[in-house]
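ok so dumb question maybe but i'm new to this and my supervisor (M.) told me to 'just get the structure for Release factor glutamine methyltransferase' and walked off. so i did the thing. is this what she meant?? sequence i used:
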Amino acid sequence: MTYEELYCRGRDRLTAVGIEEAELDARLLLEYICGTDRNELLVHGDREVEDGKRTAYEELLAGREKRIPLQYLTGVQVFMGLEFLVNEAVLIPRQDTEILVEEVLRYLHDGMRILDMCTGSGCILISLLYYTNDCEGVGLDISETALKVAEENRGKLLGGELQERHGRIHFEQSDLFEQAAGLFDVIVCNPPYIRTDELRTLMPEVGKYEPVNALDGGEDGLSFYRKIVEESKKHLCGGGMLFFEIGCEQAEAVCGLMKSAGFEAINVVKDYSGLDRIVYGTRGFA
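this is what came out, is it supposed to look like this??
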């Protein structure tokens, strides 16, 4: 069977079960198995694909038909231009979260100390350290299996000489601030923020396969924001900054929580669709 024939079979299979991006997913899975790029289909679509790779492709298609996310099938996701390892223990890094990283980067200076709460795959903290110099990063998460993924990503993306060049970083299991030691210049967090009653309405790729403890934000979706806003004051330097990713309808509520806790210069940043996505503010010196 040729490369193009195999792709067409994959596209048709995924289309038949209602995968919205069937063409893209079929192509990306085939490229993953064959070690090719998008030009292969255009230039060498008539080349024969060996039986072993065809079988492996069919197995991945079967997984995608069950709505297993593409990234869990390939084990990787590109975020901030870096390739992160992912599995079912962590949320898949999303483009909206890149806005959070980019906003934090605007305020980072060499030598700052950063805390990434609910770190998951480590994509936020690792990206921040990768694109700065001499900062120190601490990533906390309650999930031991998630932290194993974060450690793998640290070694992959900040190992060896890169670790020395981009500062120190370590991950630790912690129930929120339980194991947080010392003061930080920046606390950044993409917490669980989906309302419990909304979990059942999520698309299967999210609701069925991504870790529920990284999604469920409690009855009103604000449970983690309340806890983190209040506790963060004990762990931020005077003038330190707290950054959140939020659900698109949560800006007013999260801003209110931060204002009530004494944060100043509170701002809301929109995502690429024009929806509220980031809230941040500064701890006063008092």
